[in-house]
Amino acid sequence: MSTIPRTKTVLPPSRASSLDLVGGELAWDFTNTSSARGSAAHQEHLRDFDTLMQWIEHARVMAPSDCAYIRAQLSGHPRRARQAFARAIELRELIWTIGTALAEQRPVPARPLDLLSAAHAEHLRHAEMRMRMGSYIWVFDPRRDIEAAILGPITLSALTLLMEKDLLRTRRCAGQECGWLFFDTTKNNRRRWCEMRVCGNRAKVRAARDRQKQARKG
């Protein structure tokens, strides 16, 4: 009996270390490590613990020296690294669920808010308040707790956004192959695209092609 060899799907390189940070808030930028969720154009840039740390360093969630410390600590512990990565993805999708509801001006379900609050409280157990440039801030040291150092600043960003920002300015990019979340800071509050030069231009090109097709039919 002959067998048909399976072709291995080759994924494009992850852009975790170079993704544009256009969300306006750390929490939204974190959700934007995945694009076009639920479609054939879906792109996932956080694929393992290594790509997670690439993005953490790229987004300046912590200092490069702290990122190096975490990599060194978990290099010989793949199970701990996988667990940390899994919790990061869970948190990302939790924040995305909340952000998408806000962008669509739907009520945010109570459970995601409760889970986010619980995660924030857990991370704060390992944080310290320190004076920086005339005011106190929360500092997450990976030597105290690695998971809190990675995810603590992100949960803090999400909670601060929910409590202090104008949530009606939360947007979801209208690009067909995008769906990124961002905070609209424009005066007229009508920003449609995460980036005009990317998704906005794609939409313009698509609209021009559609007009050409209609003209040929006419």
Could you outline the blueprint of secondary structure elements for this entry?
Layout: H1 26-31, E1 34-35, E2 43-44, H2 49-58, H3 64-74, H4 78-103, H5 110-124, E3 127-132, E4 135-140, H6 146-164, E5 170-172, E6 181-183, H7 196-217
Antiparallel strand pairs: 1-2, 3-4, 5-6
Helix pairs in contact: 4-5, 4-6, 5-6
Would you mind describing this structure in some detail?
This protein is mainly alpha-helical and 218 residues long. It has a single domain, classed as Jann2411-like domain (Jann2411-like fold). The protein has 7 helices and 6 strands. It has helices spanning 26-31, 49-58, 64-74, 78-103, 110-124, 146-164, 196-217, and strands at residues 34-35, 43-44, 127-132, 135-140, 170-172, 181-183. The strands form 3 sheets. A two-stranded antiparallel sheet has the order 1-2. A two-stranded antiparallel ribbon has the order 3-4. A two-stranded antiparallel sheet has the order 5-6. α4 packs across α5 (110-124), α4 packs parallel to α6 (146-164) and α5 (110-124) crosses α6 (146-164). The protein is globular.
- Classification by helices and strands: mainly alpha
Please report the total strand number as a whole number: 6
- Tally of separate helices: 7
Q: Cα distance, first to last residue? A: 56 Å
Kindly state the mean pLDDT as a whole number?
89
Query: If classified by CATH, what would the architecture be?
Result: Orthogonal Bundle
Rg (CA only): 20 Å
Poorly predicted parts: none
Largest sheet: 2 strands, antiparallel
In the sheet with the most strands, the strands line up as 1-2
Assign a percent range to the helix content.
Answer: 40-55%
